């Protein structure tokens, strides 16, 4: 039987900005909500945020943005990033964020899939995105530059602040079920096993539901002042809902790091008295390793973390052993717990609510309103407590992907459940959920999802590659590493040749850090599907690092 949610929370059908605005009389309007970690004098209060949002809405509309138009932000983190996102949504547009590490090939796919009409980028990233933008017919006047990063790069593109020169306008408002559920606010790219990343449609309703279920559950009220340091990239599903919606509605201060730097991250937690951390496993292992690298460093790390009340880890599995090590660095009453989240679930779908400790390696329990079932390969439900593929439905679940009806038909069943590809089981005594494997073949590299098919497509385009299969191999606490099994046409082709080839076409986290193994054949079944389970078993048997 499906594990139906035992209780529901009311989710309003308002647009995102109307939802955020209704709490403003209850919070300190002059308290900063976005603060630059490097230079905390650079900050934006709630009052300033709303003024900027209205001004940027007018600017985007003056620039020609129409309802449903997509705006791509291709930058590292900065304090105006969430303001731009809120204004894009408020103007009736759709936000899409891209990874600053993307190559022109990857950016072309993102721009083409999202049908982006406008781009906001920074000088040092302009070269990579300008090439596909020109190829796709995005005019120069629709590309705006921030003044962050390397500002010595010369460009004729307009500064983003020219969008502030056209007065103020209110946001597009609605309060009905159909509009809230069918109007996109964001596109979050989710990797797939059968091709390039898919643009996941996140509606206004999805985002409002995500905030309410995580932060406004009356059975689990937040009992301490929440402040968070944001070092995760703001385009990522793990960061986007909290940064771009929750902080504006609830007045949570967000201390913004351009990108993650371990020592600065730790010192900033202490300096600003950060209470809530959202981490991915490589960040956790980096903190643990640093604390063990010198006689006085453990005490130093514990001092840095004294203000922390809660640590949440997501985006990839974390071993319970590593979780336990991190727990010893935290204050006694401050738990570290894991969540289960996907782009398709608008971020968090299961968690352990504070102040409960959970040390068995589970991902907690599902949020209110999230129904779950576990099925076998035929789609039939498995007995309670047995392993199978997790399927979910509920208010935070996307309705599908942009221009990809095939994936929609494949991944959703007739009862409205999204088939996640994760293999799970539920402990019947505690009702905790455990993720044990993946049916889908995504590789989790430092918190990012990597599609083997995307790497395979890049490698097979090499003139000396006959066939290729890519799997993830164990990279220790850093997660998985992409490894390629290659049939070459000519023995002159070397591992270094392929690594250079892939590096020119793929972002760094997709590089072949798990190595290249040249083989005479790649195992396939009768229909031609690569039997990657055999390759993974071989890698486990021989040891991930033995080629």
From TrEMBL:
Gene3D superfamilies: 3.30.300.30, N-terminal domain of ligase-like
Species for this entry: Aureobasidium pullulans
Top-level taxon: Eukaryota
Residue stretches making up the AMP-dependent synthetase/ligase domain: 24-401
Name of the protein: Acetyl-CoA synthetase-like protein
Gene Ontology BP terms: secondary metabolic process
GO molecular function, one term: CoA-ligase activity
InterPro entries: AMP-bd_C (IPR025110), AMP-bd_C_sf (IPR045851), AMP-binding_CS (IPR020845), AMP-dep_synth/lig_dom (IPR000873), ANL_N_sf (IPR042099)
Domain AMP-binding enzyme C-terminal: 454-529
Record-linked Pfam families: AMP-binding (PF00501), AMP-binding_C (PF13193)
């Amino acid at each position: 039987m499906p594990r139906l949610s035992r209780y529901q929370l009311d989710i309003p059908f308002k647009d995102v900005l109307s939802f955020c605005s209704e709490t403003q009389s209850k919070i300190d309007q002059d308290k900063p909500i976005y603060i630059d970690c490097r230079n905390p004098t650079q900050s934006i209060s709630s009052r300033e945020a709303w003024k900027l949002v209205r001004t940027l809405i007018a600017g985007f509309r003056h620039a020609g943005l129409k309802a449903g138009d997509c705006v791509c932000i291709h930058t590292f983190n900065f304090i105006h990033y969430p303001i731009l996102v809120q204004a894009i949504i408020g103007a009736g547009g759709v936000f899409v964020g891209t990874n600053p590490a993307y190559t022109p090939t990857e950016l072309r796919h993102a721009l083409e899939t999202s049908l982006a009409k406008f781009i906001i980028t920074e000088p040092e990233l302009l070269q990579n995105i300008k090439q596909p933008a020109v190829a796709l017919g995005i005019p120069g006047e629709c590309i705006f530059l921030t003044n962050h990063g390397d500002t010595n790069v010369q460009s004729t593109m307009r500064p983003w602040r020219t969008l502030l020169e056209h007065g103020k306008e209110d946001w597009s408002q609605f309060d009905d079920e159909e509009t809230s559920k069918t109007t996109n606010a964001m596109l979050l790219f989710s990797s797939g096993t059968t091709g390039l990343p898919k643009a996941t449609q996140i509606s206004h309703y999805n985002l409002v539901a995500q905030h309410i279920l995580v932060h406004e559950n009356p059975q689990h009220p937040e009992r301490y002042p929440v402040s968070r340091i944001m070092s995760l990239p703001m385009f990522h599903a793990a960061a986007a809902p909290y940064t771009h919606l929750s902080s504006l509605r609830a007045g949570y201060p967000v201390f913004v790091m351009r990108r993650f730097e371990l020592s600065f991250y730790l010192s900033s937690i202490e300096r600003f008295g950060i209470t809530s951390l959202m981490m991915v496993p490589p960040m956790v292992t980096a903190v643990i390793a640093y604390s063990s690298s010198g006689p006085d460093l453990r005490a130093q790390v514990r001092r840095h973390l004294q203000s922390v009340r809660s640590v949440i880890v997501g985006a990839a599995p974390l071993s319970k052993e590593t979780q336990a090590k991190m727990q010893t660095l935290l204050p006694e009453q401050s738990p570290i717990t894991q969540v289960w989240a996907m782009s398709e679930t608008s971020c968090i779908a299961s968690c352990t609510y504070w102040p409960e400790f959970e040390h068995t390696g589970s991902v907690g329990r599902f949020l209110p309103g999230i129904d779950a079932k576990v099925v076998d390969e035929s789609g039939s439900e498995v007995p309670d407590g047995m392993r199978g593929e997790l399927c979910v439905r509920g208010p935070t679940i996307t309705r599908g992907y942009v221009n990809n009806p095939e994936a929609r038909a494949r991944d959703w069943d007739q009862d409205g459940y999204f088939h996640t590809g994760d293999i799970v089981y539920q402990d019947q005594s505690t009702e905790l959920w455990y993720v044990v494997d993946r049916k889908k073949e995504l590789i989790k590299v430092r918190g990012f999802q990597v599609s083997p098919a995307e790497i395979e497509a890049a490698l097979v385009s090499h003139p000396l590659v006959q066939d290729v299969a890519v799997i993830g191999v164990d990279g220790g606490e850093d997660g998985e590493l992409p490894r390629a099994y290659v049939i070459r046409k000519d023995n002159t082709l070397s591992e270094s040749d392929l690594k250079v080839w892939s590096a020119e076409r793929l972002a760094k986290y997709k590089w072949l850090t798990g190595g290249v193994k040249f083989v005479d054949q790649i195992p396939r079944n009768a229909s031609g599907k690569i039997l990657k389970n055999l390759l993974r078993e071989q890698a486990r048997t021989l040891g991930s690092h033995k080629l």
